[in-house]
């Protein structure tokens, strides 16, 4: 055996042993999110990443078609973000932002976000992620009405298929039954409306707006605090709304003095071609919830942006709410560097261009009987399958072929890094097409 071949064989053996040891240790020590307690699946142990590719501990590369959980628009392995974190850690790693304490990176980040946001946004409340952000938004909306002398306005309108997190209030507002099952009574005061594409046809928006008007009349506008929704449904199947949906919904809400909370945890920071998804749909929400793309996932970081209407209602109220790591200086420093990359590299425009390329490549799948729809906006795409086609099986087969996609119910969802190159994008489409066709 040649020396080179022997060295490769030895290294492969070492990596195999490392992978087995880590997998065994994982199974004995970790409860994973969305896993079966007591019956852990064998993990894919990832070791490193660069751009739109990640490698496991055995050295096998995978094209990342999901950004993990949609959170890395600038891609993996960006030294600029590691350097920003290290520099801030060496200067001030953390201090509480409760009360009157603050730090320069969080102040600079708040200023930057308000520069990028719709003009009605006035203040920023920092969080560690999307679930915390939606908890914050719901509490802020209820508190605002309460402080304004309307404590009976606490009902939250949400949507079937909407995903807002796994906390107490955020899960209560999540309209996906499988995620709510088994946890007993959730926070009361939630009213669910139809999914934007649940009723198909030319009059879909008419039907949805009529339902909204009827629900407001039945519940009573004087009891409703806010409507919460994602610009584009994410976990609920990557469902873009009809073009006229959001402006018409906003008009109804404004007429009844109901606040609009826009959950932009997925859609903000370039995912659908804009800094904020509300820009794409021509609306001005009262509260915007962000996370994920704010720091590209390099460190947990989220931000809730509050607009004029909610701040006017809440003016003078004590907001007795917060999380230990609010306004984390390292998170803020990384987020500022991340926004700089998105801007310098023109990644917002790239999301639109590459999203159209990927959608065009996948659209022919609709000719298959077991493919119900291929849809998307920007770099958020979904391939909805007949339940019998087994989306989870497609996910597993694609991963074996070196492409990571995600089965969300019966839909294969895609949200690659915005830095993915055309060749990688085409490979993703080819591998997914192969396994969807074979499902």
Strand content: 15-25%
Binned, the helix content reads: 40-55%
Please describe the biggest sheet, giving its number of strands, its sense, and whether it closes into a barrel.
Answer: 7 strands, mixed
Structural class: alpha/beta
Mean pLDDT: 95
The termini sit apart by 42 Å
Count of DSSP H/I helices = 15
**H and E string:** HEEEHHHEHEHHEHEHEHEEHHHEEHEEEH
Map the helices and strands.
Elements: H1 3-29, E1 46-50, E2 53-56, E3 61-64, H2 67-70, H3 79-91, H4 104-116, E4 121-127, H5 130-147, E5 155-159, H6 168-172, H7 177-180, E6 190-193, H8 204-219, E7 224-229, H9 245-255, E8 259-263, H10 277-281, E9 287-290, E10 302-307, H11 308-314, H12 329-344, H13 347-362, E11 371-377, E12 380-385, H14 391-400, E13 403-404, E14 406-408, E15 411-414, H15 422-437
Parallel strand pairs: 3-13, 5-6, 5-7, 7-8, 8-9
Antiparallel strand pairs: 1-2, 2-3, 4-10, 9-10, 11-12, 12-15, 14-15
Describe this structure in words.
The chain is α/β, with parallel strands linked by helices. It is 41% helix and 16% strand. The chain contains 15 helices and 15 strands.
List keywords for this structure.
439 residues; four-stranded mixed beta sheet; 15 helices; globular
Summarize it.
By secondary structure, the protein is an alpha/beta fold. Helix content is 41%, strand content 16%.
């Amino acid at each position: 055996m040649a020396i080179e071949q022997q060295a490769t064989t030895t290294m492969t053996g070492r990596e195999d042993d490392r992978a087995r040891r880590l997998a065994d240790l994982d199974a004995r020590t970790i409860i994973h999110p969305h896993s079966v307690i007591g019956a852990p699946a064998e993990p894919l142990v990832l070791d490193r990443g660069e751009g739109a590719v990640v490698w496991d501990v055995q050295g096998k590369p995978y094209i990342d078609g999901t950004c993990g959980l949609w959170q890395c628009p600038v891609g993996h392995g960006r030294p600029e973000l590691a350097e920003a974190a290290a520099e801030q850690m060496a200067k001030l790693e953390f201090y509480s932002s409760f009360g009157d304490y603050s730090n320069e990176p969080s102040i600079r980040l708040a200023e930057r976000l308000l520069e990028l946001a719709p003009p009605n946004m006035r203040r920023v409340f920092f969080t560690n992620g999307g679930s915390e952000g939606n908890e914050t938004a719901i509490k802020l909306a209820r508190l605002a009405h309460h402080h304004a002398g309307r404590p009976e306005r606490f009902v939250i309108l949400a949507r079937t298929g909407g995903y807002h997190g796994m906390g107490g209030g955020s899960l209560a507002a999540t309209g996906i039954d499988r995620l709510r099952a088994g946890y007993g009574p959730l926070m009361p005061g939630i009213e669910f409306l139809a999914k934007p594409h649940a009723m198909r046809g030319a009059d879909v928006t008419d039907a949805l707006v009529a339902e909204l008007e009827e629900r407001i009349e039945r519940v009573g506008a004087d009891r409703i605090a806010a409507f919460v929704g994602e610009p584009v449904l994410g976990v609920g199947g990557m469902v873009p709304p009809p073009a006229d949906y959001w402006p018409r919904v906003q008009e109804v809400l404004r007429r009844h003095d109901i606040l609009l909370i826009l959950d932009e945890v997925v859609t903000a920071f370039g995912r659908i071609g804009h800094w904020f998804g509300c820009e794409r749909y021509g609306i001005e929400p009262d509260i915007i919830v962000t996370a994920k793309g704010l720091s590209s996932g390099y460190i947990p970081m989220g931000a809730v942006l509050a607009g004029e209407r909610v701040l006017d209602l809440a003016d003078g109220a004590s907001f007795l709410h917060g999380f230990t790591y609010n306004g984390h200086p390292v998170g803020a420093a990384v987020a500022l560097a991340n926004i700089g990359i998105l801007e310098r590299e023109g990644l917002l425009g790239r999301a639109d261009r590459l999203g159209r390329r990927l959608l065009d490549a996948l659209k022919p799948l609709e000719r298959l009987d077991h493919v119900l729809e291929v849809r998307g906006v920007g770099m958020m795409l979904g391939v909805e399958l007949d339940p019998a086609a087994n989306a989870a099986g497609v996910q597993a087969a694609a991963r074996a072929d070196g492409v990571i996609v995600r089965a969300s119910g019966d839909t294969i969802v895609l949200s690659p890094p915005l830095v993915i190159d055309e060749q990688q994008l085409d490979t993703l489409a080819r591998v997914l097409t192969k396994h969807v066709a074979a499902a």
